[in-house]
Amino acid sequence: MPQRSVHLPFAIDLPATLHGLRRGRHDPCCRFAADGIWRASRYPTGPATVHLVPAGDRVEVTAWGAGAEEALDGIPALIGCHDDDQGFSPDHPVVARLWRDHADRRIPRSGAVTEALVASVLEQRVTTFEARRAQGQLVARWGEPAPGPTDLMLPPHPEVLAGVAYYDLHVLGVEKKRSDTLRRVAANARRLDALVQLPVAEAHARLLRTPGVGPWTAAEVALVALGDADAVPVGDAHLPSTITYALTGTAVDDDDAMLEALEPFAGQRGRVIALVGAAGIHAPRHGPRYAPRDIRSQ
Question: Which of 64, 155, 203, 208 could pair with 147 in a Cys bridge, judged by C-beta atoms 3.0 to 4.6 Å apart?
């Protein structure tokens, strides 16, 4: 049961920073609890569970499992200690206020590319509820208990997921297009996870070359697995309205309008999006919408 005390180079809000790694409140692999944050994942050296407890200017971490030491080595990157905000000094009044109030919401870097891809593929073209349900069922059926004193589950091993039959995914509500992408991602897990060794821009570009992975999916993965502070999930159902509303005062449901509003923050656009999310800003909603546009399926 190795332990590690990680010094924080700046203030870090752990729940806000790791928000994108938890797939809903009932994520079977990640839990935000009163006693800290628990997360189960797979590493090249084996599975591991980590327990993170904030303690002033440090985070106390305990790990269990064959991959415990590797998991501990990755904690500084995971919680945003390596997040580079150099040159980010916004003069936009709203963004400046958000940065002042939420600078402790950092960009994480889990390094778990395949894990993030599987979760993001499940979210393509469906409601959040449907994606969370499929994820929970996927983990319950093909995952395994996580190491340590917890009831968390490990995400399915890529080799197992690659061999799952389409019908078995179909009964979870995952149609053929997403099923094919899911199994393709799992079959190429080693190559995809190796992308963390590349510069962020190159890794992001290679993600886009994976069939079934388009701008939205690649950006979602880059934001949590690669530490890409500039990733923009183009094709999201509600994000353009929210970002244009936050930055211009007028909600425009159009990706081009969102990109134009974010252009002054090139290099840090994902950070601006994260700050808007941390502040809980949402565009006024004028009516129900069922699901994201089809671009999310790419």
Answer: 64
